[in-house]
Amino acid sequence: MSPQEETETFDAKRKGILKSSKLAKTASAMANKNGGTIVIGIGVDHNGCEIIKGFSNKPEEKNRAKEIIKDNTRPSMVDLFKVRFSEVRGVHLLRIDISKSVDEMEEPVKYTGGSSPKAYIRNDDSSDPMTKRQINKWHKKRKRKITNRKFFKFLNKLREFDKNGYPSPDLISNPDDQKDY
């Protein structure tokens, strides 16, 4: 992994990102697109050479990354990411794996660390503000996913009926047959 290979689903950050809310901006942008991975502890020097500065593998460092993302995004991304240590060349780096928000959220995730809350999206190796068109596209995708989920839930219910048999007709009430007592 090197910083030159940053993509839509991979971003390398220096350790200093843990002193800033901008980590949440990248995380929210990835969540609003296809998810991805952020690795912290990698950078380049003034000559363009890769620098790997690892962590001491302390829980406080993981917790700091979690806090930054949790405190600077709305709706909360707490269920969309996992933070863990990964070892590269004998050095511990922080790895943040991020899921797609469209699968879990009602609206795109907004970065709240700037002057006003704003939704970002990953475009190649950068995090850019979402346009109205992109937000509408996100909502359409979300609607399709919900519709698909409901359809598959219905199909599973039908399969359950096929396997266990349909309820007997006398168990199904007819409002016209009910009497007032």
Structure overview:
InterPro entries: Schlafen_AlbA_2_dom, Schlafen_AlbA_2_dom_sf. This is Schlafen-like putative transcriptional regulator containing HTH and ATP-binding domain. It comes from Methanohalarchaeum thermophilum. Pfam families: SLFN_AlbA_2. One of its GO terms (molecular function) is ATP binding. There is one protein chain. This protein has 181 residues and is α+β, with helices and mostly antiparallel strands. It folds into two domains: 128 residues, Methyltransferase, Cobalt-precorrin-4 Transmethylase, Domain 2, CATH 3.30.950; 35 residues. 31% of the residues lie in helices and 25% in strands. The protein contains three helices and ten strands, in the order βαβββαββββββα. The strands form three sheets. A four-stranded mixed beta sheet has the order 1-2-7-6. Strands 5-8-9-10 form a four-stranded antiparallel beta sheet. β1, α1 and β2 form a beta-alpha-beta unit. α1 packs across α2. The mean pLDDT is 84.
Task: Furnish the topology, listing elements before pairings.
Layout: E1 10-13, H1 22-31, E2 36-40, E3 42-44, E4 50-52, H2 59-71, E5 73-74, E6 81-88, E7 91-98, E8 110-111, E9 118-123, E10 126-129, H3 132-164
Parallel strand pairs: 1-2
Antiparallel strand pairs: 2-7, 3-4, 5-8, 6-7, 8-9, 9-10
CATH superfamily of the largest domain, called what?
Answer: Schlafen, AAA domain
Top-tier CATH class of the largest domain = Alpha Beta
| Overall average pLDDT | 84
H-E string: EHEEEHEEEEEEH
Tally of domains: 2
Given the C-alpha coordinates, what overall shape results?
globular
Record field, number of beta strands: 10
Strand residue content: 15-25%
Described by strand count, sense and barrel closure, the largest sheet is: 4 strands, mixed
